[in-house]
Amino acid sequence: MNEQKETEEQGGGLFGALTGAWNYAASSISSFLGYEDLDVVNPDGSRPEEAKADTSDKRQIAFTNYKDYIGMDITSLVTLPVWIMEPYTILQKVAEIMEYTDALDRAAATEDPYERLAWVAGFCIGPFGGNERTWKPFNPILGETFELDLPTNGVRFLAEQVSHHPPISAAHAENDKWVYDIVSAPSTKFMGNSVEIYPVGRSRIKLRKTGEVFSLVPPNSTAHNVIVGSTWVDCHGNFSLTNVSTGAKCSLYFTPCGWFSDGRYQVSGHIYTEEGKKVLALAGAWNSHLDMQPCDEDGDPLPGSKTTRLWQCKEKPKGDKYGFTHFARMLNAGKGVAPLASDSRRRPDRAALEWGDTGSAGTEKHSLEERQRAERKERDRRKEKWAPRWFQPSKDTQTHEDEYSLEDCPMWDFTGDYLKLPRKAADPAEDCAGRDFAPWSYPELHTDKQ
């Protein structure tokens, strides 16, 4: 792989909910291809902006490069410009999982084991409510972190980029009721005018009271119309949540979007006992809600039985440029926090984009990438091996039903050292955004760039 194709820009999460602003270039590329009269629409009926002729060499070369990637995993191949980015990082995308932790608290307090499993499913569905964003987040620098405290229920969260090639993020969260761990190593496939996203990873949830452990394998996603048309995201396929301590299982199906939006967002499935008997019916939409209802052996809801809402997507801000939820906005807030020097909020490129300065964002992004390359060269020169600060390779080699293999997704363990750090109070007036970002192993290499 040559230096042109080897890039610091790998996707993540949902490939960051993807290449949204590839849509920005769509009209130019479609014109070049002779698609001026092609009417490509979003499933909801909305139409892209009228195509404008632009057959510049730059656009032709851009499309030629994209065409070369058809059928390939572009997770770490395609270098993307700042104008398609959102002022957010992949580690912050991982932290969005924490928005609906009240469902996990509810699971920990539920006596019925199958309803308990359903509440865990409600928590796991929650992040899909923010998955329609069509902008790409910044990729973490090796050793970059993101931390979060939720005072309402005592949650502490930390994510770290533990590998650069292949791109892997690890995260840990806990409060007095449960423990959550995730390793995220997504892959993609470029299909020409769409990108398939495979959520390769491993999620484990442990309830402290019962000792039960749950394993999640989420469905795939697709970003449609990334070259021609109005970009939109669909989540589709099987969702599997297994209580590995008992064998009980939640199996859901995310219906692929059909013609004229048929089935778009629909989710349905059941909670199964250890013997495979259906006991609860689950139904909803992955962008809005999930409900639970007792069912018969055929899986049909019992007449007159109570319906319980497991998850309700919170109202989103209107007119947000990037489609951020209120929770995502909170994760981007820098005031009143004193995070680690390696924290995503301190990235100068992310902060510059947040402030609307795309020129500086691009310059800072390039500078960070150059520093990362310099670190790699210095590490090779010293013949040293990089190691994360807060996670370590796991000695556990057990994978569970439906999970990805160790080859696809290695295991990482949280060391617990982060939780031993003294809580550092911040000046309420201080804003860490874009300031003092330092995830480096060899800070002496960067003294002239600080």
Description:
The protein is an alpha+beta fold. The protein has one domain: Porin (Beta Barrel), CATH 2.40.160. Helices cover 20% and strands 25% of the residues. The chain is built from eight helices and 19 strands. The protein has helices spanning 22-32, 57-68, 90-95, 102-109, 113-125, 326-332, 348-354, 358-382; strands at residues 85-89, 136-138, 145-150, 155-163, 168-174, 178-184, 187-190, 194-198, 201-207, 213-217, 220-224, 232-243, 249-254, 266-272, 278-285, 289-294, 308-312, 391-393, 412-414. The strands form three sheets. It has a 15-stranded antiparallel β-sheet that branches. A two-stranded parallel ribbon has the order 1-2. It has a two-stranded antiparallel sheet with strand order 18-19. Helix 4 (102-109) packs antiparallel against helix 5 (113-125) and helix 7 (348-354) runs antiparallel to helix 8 (358-382). It is globular. The relative contact order is 0.15. Residues 1-41 and 45-63 have low confidence and may be disordered. InterPro entries: OSBP_sf, Oxysterol-bd, Oxysterol-bd_CS. Residues 339-403 are annotated as: Disordered. Residues 343-352, 363-387 have a biased composition (Basic and acidic residues).
